[in-house]
Structures are given as structure tokens and as C-alpha cells.
Automatic annotation (TrEMBL):
InterPro entries: DoxX (IPR032808). This is DoxX family protein. It is found in: Membrane. It is a multi-pass membrane protein. It comes from the Archaea. Keywords: Membrane, Transmembrane, Transmembrane helix. One of its GO terms (cellular component) is membrane. It comes from Halovivax cerinus. The chain crosses the membrane at residues 12-31, 57-90, 111-132. The lineage of its organism: Archaea, Methanobacteriati, Methanobacteriota, Stenosarchaea group, Halobacteria.
Length: 137
């Protein structure tokens, strides 16, 4: 699937950038549980603290899964689902006005293109990944 060393290196870099960013975002969930739970409650999520902890775990584990190549299909699918659900529930720009609407639309669009990237990783999850542990489905 990866025909050259530059392609292998680019794919590794993509995994590190995407997975690392998501894992870092997940760590932020654990570092500011109270603040994020308050925002989740404001957005009407049930069990806001549990939602923050659960989504933090999905981001950390999913991101690390893609970096290491350990159960990448599970990690990529979990990330895609989380980002799409989060886009619709947390970043409802269509209900806002002014600058708040613009900020929520930007966050919504980031989640949508992130979900697209996760789906691309899911599409290649069954291949042997270069520089990866290649454990999983």
C-alpha cells in the first residue's frame, strides 16, 4: 500500500499529528473536568462529568491507537463517532448569534473535518501500517 519510504514517513507523520493532537485534547478533558463539565451541562448533556471523562478517554485512547497502530479500526471509528456527535451536540452554531455563532461554527467544522480524517484512517486500518505495532482487527 505504501510504495516508498517518503509515503511511509508521511503516513507516520499524519498519524502522529492527528493522533497526538486528539490525545492532547483528551488530556485537557482530564485537566479541566469541572470547567468542561460545566460547559457540557450548559449544552444540555446528560451526566456532564461522566461525558467529559468518557470523551477524554475516547480522545486519548483513540489518538494513541492511531499513533501506535494498535486496534486502529476501533480507535478511528470511536474518534469519528465522537467528533460527529460532539459537532452536533456541543457546537450548535445554528442556535447562536453573532460572534458566538461564528465560534461554534468554527468548532463544528473542525469536528467535521476531523471526523473525515478519522474515517480515512478507518478506511486503511486493515493494511499493514509502516512504523506501527500493527495489532488489532
Amino acid at each position: 500500500m505504501f510504495a516508498s519510504a517518503p509515503m511511509e514517513a508521511a503516513f507516520l507523520l499524519a498519524r502522529v499529528l492527528f493522533g497526538g493532537t486528539l490525545a492532547f485534547m483528551g488530556l485537557n478533558h482530564f485537566m479541566d473536568v469541572e470547567g468542561m463539565a460545566g460547559y457540557a451541562e450548559y449544552k444540555g448533556l446528560p451526566a456532564p462529568t461522566l461525558s467529559v471523562l468518557g470523551s477524554g478517554a475516547v480522545l486519548v485512547l483513540g489518538g494513541l491507537s492511531l499513533i501506535a497502530g494498535v486496534f486502529p479500526a476501533v480507535g478511528a471509528a470511536a474518534i469519528a463517532v465522537f467528533l460527529l456527535v460532539s459537532a452536533a451536540t456541543m457546537h450548535d452554531f445554528w442556535r447562536m448569534e453573532g460572534e458566538e455563532a461564528q465560534n461554534e461554527m468554527t468548532a463544528f467544522l473542525k469536528n467535521v473535518y476531523g471526523a473525515g480524517a478519522a474515517l480515512a484512517f478507518l478506511a486503511v486500518a486493515s493494511a499493514t501500517w509502516p512504523y506501527a505495532l500493527n495489532v488489532g482487527l
